[in-house]
């Protein structure tokens, strides 16, 4: 490991970690053997194991060797959804950004964002506000923003009296549903000020 670049070193570390995970699944290889292994055959083999670890290893292989075949990614994403592993799924969705806008990708984003708003009841007012800000920043990064349904999240914003957040989401509801919520949102006397403060946090408008 002499005279190697930083990126080459990181690649080496990633592959060593991958080899360790593969060994835990009963697949013993060297780096050279892994590099030469038929990746599609390996992915097919891993998909038949039926374990979360195998699905994660499939994703790591696809990202390490830049395999963007959507057949494999659809299996990976749907498996993560089925298993409810949404935090790590977000990493894969970010990787697929600008690569995929298929139905399974949209469904995964919907699940990740919906889950982010399942917040603990014990949060303080300040903690709740910060959680909402972080969630809205995540929404802003979503490449399929206009394909998502925000009605349930908007309802949560109203229920928790975070009317400024609800006002932002209002623009992404069908026109036929907006009138159902406008009256509740505008009853907030500090709405204009709250929207201004929200804008200063980078959440004043969502772009898809």
Automatic annotation (TrEMBL):
GO terms for biological process: mitotic sister chromatid segregation; mitotic spindle assembly checkpoint signaling; protein localization to kinetochore involved in kinetochore assembly. Residues 12-191 form the RZZ complex subunit KNTC1/ROD C-terminal domain. InterPro entries: KNTC1, RZZ-complex_KNTC1/ROD_C. Transmembrane segments: none annotated. GO terms for molecular function: small GTPase binding. GO terms for cellular component: cytoplasm; kinetochore microtubule; RZZ complex. This is RZZ complex subunit KNTC1/ROD C-terminal domain-containing protein.
């Amino acid at each position: 490991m002499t005279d190697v670049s930083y990126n080459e070193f990181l690649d080496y570390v990633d592959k060593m970690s991958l080899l360790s995970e593969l060994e835990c699944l009963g697949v013993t290889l060297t780096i050279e053997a892994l590099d030469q292994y038929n990746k599609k055959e390996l992915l097919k083999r891993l998909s038949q194991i039926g374990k979360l670890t195998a699905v994660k290893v499939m994703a790591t292989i696809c990202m390490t060797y830049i395999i963007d075949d959507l057949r494999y990614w659809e299996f990976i994403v749907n498996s993560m959804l089925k298993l409810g592993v949404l935090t790590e799924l977000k990493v894969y969705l970010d990787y697929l950004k600008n690569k995929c806008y298929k139905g399974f990708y949209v469904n995964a984003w919907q699940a990740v964002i919906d889950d982010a708003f399942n917040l603990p009841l014990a949060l303080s007012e300040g903690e709740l506000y910060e959680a909402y800000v972080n969630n809205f920043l995540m929404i802003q990064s979503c490449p399929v923003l206009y394909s998502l349904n925000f009605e349930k999240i908007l309802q949560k914003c109203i229920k928790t009296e975070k009317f400024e957040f609800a006002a932002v989401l209002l623009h992404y509801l069908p026109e036929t549903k907006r009138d159902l919520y406008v009256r509740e949102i505008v009853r907030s006397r500090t709405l204009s000020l709250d929207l201004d403060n929200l804008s200063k946090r980078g959440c004043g408008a969502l772009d898809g």
